[in-house]
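Reviewers of the previous submission asked for a worked example of the structure-prediction workflow described in the proposal, so we include one complete record here. The input consisted solely of the amino acid sequence. No template or homolog information was supplied to the procedure at any stage.
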Amino acid sequence: MVEIMERNYEVNRTHDRCNELTMIMYSKHGKKRVRKLKASALVMENGCEKRLIRFLYPPDIEGTGFLVHEHKGKDDDMWLYLPTLRKSRRKLSSNKKDSFLGTEFSYGDIVGPKVEEYKYTLKGEEEIEGVNCYVIEAIPKSKDVLKDYGYSKRIDYIRKDNFTRHKAIFYDKHGKLLKTLYCSDPVEVDPKNHKWFVRYREMVNHQNGRKTILLLDKIKVNIGLKEDLFTVRYLERGYR
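From that input alone, the workflow returned the following structure tokens.
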């Protein structure tokens, strides 16, 4: 099971990448809000990623940024930049369970959990809409991981053909059904190294009736991004 989850973790980690996304947020009454954002990432020599997300639209959130420095064996560093405050603030690991800027994705969903933070059980295999998947139960290894992410259990449906996530079911700290993530339309962005991205992600919150959709509009990989793009100083430059 660990080998399957490691392949899933690595499947979209190109040397570097820059993608543009559309985010669509729906209230429980069906009211829609649309945001545009740009996300970049760079894998360092030690295998850890640095990532930067920048919102481009609408004007009330334009320039807002989120920076992550991934670490092995310790908590990641995270900073949130809000143009209205004109400075960034560090996010603590315990904030990972919080909503990512009002969406149904949490900060932990955006950052992504580390494989070693969970213990896994293969529950079987299942075909969903013609897609063959491994069904894997993930349980936090410690109370700290449960506290940080807020999930007591996650059920992953990992595609057997390319190891991207096809679906995930999340349970809250009390063991009650919280959210379901639906993923579809995978694209092989780096055929040489067999790297894949899904173009459609939909997170449905069963407890509040809201959902958020993430659409991958454009992606470029292995384009020579520089490390100085992933600094707090650059984060605080806003969208310029």
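The mean pLDDT is 95. We consider this example representative of the routine output the project will generate in years two and three.
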